[in-house]
Amino acid sequence: MRKAQFILIMLISVALLLPACGGSSSDLTKIEVAEVTRSIFYAPQYVAVTEGFFEDEGLDVTITTTWGGDVTMTTLISGGADIALVGSETSIYVYQQGADDVVVNFAQLTQTDGTFLVAREPNPDFTWDDLKGSVFLGQRVGGMPQMVGEYVLKSKGIDPHNDLDLIQNIDFANIANAFASGTGEYVQLFEPQATIFEREGLGHVLASFGTESGNIPYTVFMAKDSYIQKNPEIIQKFTNAIYRAQTWVYEQPAEVVAASIAPFFADTEIDIITAVVDRYRAQESYDRNPILDEQEWNLLQDIIEEAGELQLRVEHSVLVNTSFAEKAMQ
C-alpha cells in the first residue's frame, strides 16, 4: 500500500511540474503554415520546430505541405493557412491579379535558387558552352527554378530555346526519374536528388544555379496583409523563432542540423541530409537573417521580367515588410 501511495504521489508531482517545464499546448497560439514543398532547402523552418524555438515564443506551429505555388497561395488566401512559405514571386502574381487583400512578405528563409546543373558524366573542365547543342531537361515553364535557370543560361551567352534541345513538359515530381531513365544529357535538379545521383553514379554536379544567379528572395514567409495587421505580435514571435533558427543552422555542425531536421525526412538517409545541409550552407542558400532587402527584390523582378512573366514591377514597400525581421535582429 505504501509503495502504491508513493507512486501516486510521484505521478502527481510530475504532472504538476510539466507545465512549468515547457507550458501546456493549450497555452500556445496555434499557427497553420502551408509550405510549397517539403525540402531540406527549408532546414531552418524545421529547426524552429524541433529545437523548440516556436514553442519558446508561445507558438504551436503546424506545417502542411501543399505541393505547388498555386495551391499554396490558394490555401493562404482562402484562410486554410495563416502563413505560407513559398517563392516571393507568388505575392507579385496575386498583386497583378488585383487582389484587395495583398499578400505581404515578412521573413525571408532562403536567398538563392536551390537547383544544380547535373550531367551524366563528370567534367572537371566544364564550361557553360558545353551545353550548346545538348538535350537539357529543365524545370516547369513559369516556375521560379526554370526562370532562374534560363536567366543564368542567358548570362552565360546561351539561348535556352535555340542553343539547346530544351525539354520542359515533364512534371516536377518526375524530372529526376526521367533523367535516371535516360532522358537528357543535362538536368536542373534540386537536392537531395543531386546528391543521391552523385552517390549512385547516375549524375555529377557541375555548377550551382543559386551561386550563378546571385541573391534573390527565393523562399519567403508571407501572410495576407489583413492577418498581419490583426496579429502583429504573432508575426513578430514567428519571425523571432525563424531568425533564431537561421543563426543556429550556421552555428551548429552539419551533422547536428541534419539530426535535428531528420524527423521531417524519414525516407532520407541521415548522411544524405548532412551532405545537403553542408552544400546549401556552403553557398549560403539559407539566409542568415529574415530581411528581404530591396536589391534582392529588384533582381527577382528582373528575372521574372526576363522570362516574360511580369506584367508590372511592384515597389519593395508595397509587398515587403521588413520591420518584423529588423526587430527580431535587435
What does this structure look like?
It is built from 16 helices and ten strands. The protein has helices at 2-22, 43-50, 53-56, 69-77, 89-96, 144-155, 175-180, 193-200, 209-213, 225-230, 232-251, 254-261, 270-282, 294-306, 316-319, 323-329, and strands at residues 29-35, 59-65, 83-86, 103-110, 115-119, 135-137, 165-167, 186-190, 204-208, 219-224. It folds into two domains: 24-112 and 217-329, 3-Layer(aba) Sandwich (D-Maltodextrin-Binding Protein, domain 2), CATH 3.40.190.10; 115-213, 3-Layer(aba) Sandwich (D-Maltodextrin-Binding Protein, domain 2). Mean pLDDT is 92; it is low at 1-24. Helix 2 crosses helix 11 (232-251) and helix 11 packs across helix 16 (323-329). It is 46% helix and 16% strand. The protein starts with a helix and ends with a helix. Helix 6 (144-155) links the parallel strand 6 and strand 7. The protein is of the alpha/beta class and 330 residues long. 43% of the residues are buried.
